[in-house]
Specification:
By secondary structure, the protein is α+β, with helices and mostly antiparallel strands. It has a single domain (2-121), classed as Aminopeptidase (3-Layer(aba) Sandwich). It is 31% helix and 22% strand. It is built from four helices and five strands; from the N terminus they run βααβββαβα. Strands 1-2-3-4-5 form a five-stranded mixed β-sheet. The model has no long low-confidence stretch (mean pLDDT 94).
């Protein structure tokens, strides 16, 4: 798998990948999420390519204090072959180069397999509560 920065021509394939992996939800419009990401830190939006096909994605962020990971996805056909670990290692190296001291990510508590995946990469469950507040209603624009 070759890892590179997201290109606008990848959008349809990336959104299809997110849908395949169950990452899309009604309150997050994937097109708007991509548009917003491209406006801020687009170098941390990665895709994994196999034979000219998008098979993986990871959307990283860094605001000077913590790094974040969103939309890590690997096509079902390529899961459990190390692609997710490769994507995370690549993203971590980019964040380290920016001086990022820690990465945070959120996983639905019911997604035990993904939690175990991240634990296998050295991530630990932080004793915190995740709070959120919608500032826009993206569900209306889908």
């Amino acid at each position: 798998m070759k890892i590179r920065a997201f290109e606008t021509s990848d959008e349809t394939a990336v959104i299809q990948l997110w849908k395949e992996c169950g990452l899309t939800v009604p309150w997050n419009n994937p097109q708007l999420d991509i548009e917003r990401k491209l406006a801020v830190g687009r170098d941390l939006f990665l895709v994994g390519i196999q034979e000219d096909n998008v098979i993986a994605s990871a959307m990283g962020g860094y605001e000077g204090h913590r790094g974040w990971v969103n939309y890590l996805a690997v096509s079902l056909e390529f899961q459990k072959h190390g692609c997710g670990a490769q994507m995370m290692a690549h993203l971590e190296s980019l964040l380290i180069a920016k001086g990022c001291p820690k990465i945070n990510l959120q996983v639905r508590s019911s997604n035990l397999g993904v939690i175990e995946f991240y634990k296998s990469l050295g991530y630990k469950i932080d004793d915190t509560v995740s709070l959120g507040k919608r500032l826009t209603d993206d569900s209306a624009s889908s």
